[in-house]
Amino acid sequence: MAKKRTIAGNWKMHGSKAHLKEFVTFMANNSALLHEQVDTILCPPFPYLDAAATLFKDVKGLKLGAQDVSAHQEGAFTGQVAASMLSEVGCQYVIVGHSERRQFNHENDELVAAKFIAAKAAGLTPILCVGETKEQRMSELTNSVVIGQLQALLAHGVAVFDNAMIAYEPIWAIGTGLTATPEQAQAVHRLLRETLAEYDATLAKSMPILYGGSVKATNAKGLFAMPDIDGALVGGASLSATEFLEIANAAI
After folding, report:
1. Which residues are the active-site residues?
2. How far apart are CA 141 and CA 119, in angstroms?
3. Are 97 and 149 in contact (CB under 8 A)?
4. Measuring CA to CA, how many Å separate 133 from each of 21, 138, 190, 218, 248?
5. CA 170, CA 137: separation in Å to the nearest integer?
6. What is the per-residue pLDDT across 137-175, written as a single tens digit (0 to 9) for each?
7. Per-residue pLDDT reduced to its tens digit, 8-53
8. How many CA within 13 A on the CB side of residue 194?
9. Could you tell me if 80 and 70 are in contact, meaning their C-beta atoms sit under 8 angstroms apart?
């Protein structure tokens, strides 16, 4: 059987309760088009997670994720959300280490690793984001940057990647309209898989590695044709239910 594909939508700080309801209604009306070989995940902003969990019950095949998580289990951490809280509200997945968190909230590899481990401890599936800036790519540092971000987790043992995902998001392609060519993306995905294989070949083979960075319905199929690209972490295009479904169908 072919490996399952994964399409995860990250709404970032967009949307509204009304938009969420319209989105889910469309997905419910077209649920027959959600293929069982494609895991479809939506990560709306924190305030809409509870409503989303209720609405998603009407859509077979649509799963709930969050955009971030605290590294702490509980305590005096104003504004943070614990992994157990996300799990309780109905989340199954959570994004960690997104480049916007690393850039604007100054999250380093150690903090990202702590969030990843906290998510795992609560039974969530973390989606670890790795990627390089335009300057790093121009300086031929892509490989060392993404391997360094991966090594921050591998320092805790390769078993930490059981029931987890990796998303390669070249920072220069996020929200810019630029997209890595399928061949550029494949090269990094292959590197990530080969790095994992040095620790556990079986896990490396089964590890879902998603591509993110201006993924659209028009470029998805070319990306998914690459042997080491197992799906996508979709940003702006995921706000359109029609386009999100088109991207999911391109993964079949």
Report:
1. 98, 169
2. 29
3. yes
4. 35, 9, 19, 24, 27
5. 9
6. 999 999 999 999 999 999 999 999 999 999 999 999 887
7. 999 999 999 999 999 999 999 998 888 899 999 999 999 999 999 9
8. 10
9. yes
Q: Which two tokens stand for residue 151?
A: 């090594």
- Could you tell me the sign of the dihedral formed by the alpha carbons of 189, 193, 196, 202, in that order? positive
Residue 193's closest CA among 137, 150, 136, 157?
Answer: 150
Contact 131, 169 (CB under 8 A): yes
Instruction: List the chain domain ranges.
Output: 5-12+38-250
The DSSP bridge partners found for residue 166 are: 128, 209
The fold of the 5-12+38-250 domain, in CATH, is TIM Barrel (3.20.20)
Amino acid at 16: S
Question: Which amino acid, 84?
Answer: S
**Strand ranges inside 52-187, DSSP E:** 62-66, 93-96, 125-130, 165-168
The residues near 147 (Cβ < 8 Å, ≥ 6 apart) are 191, 195
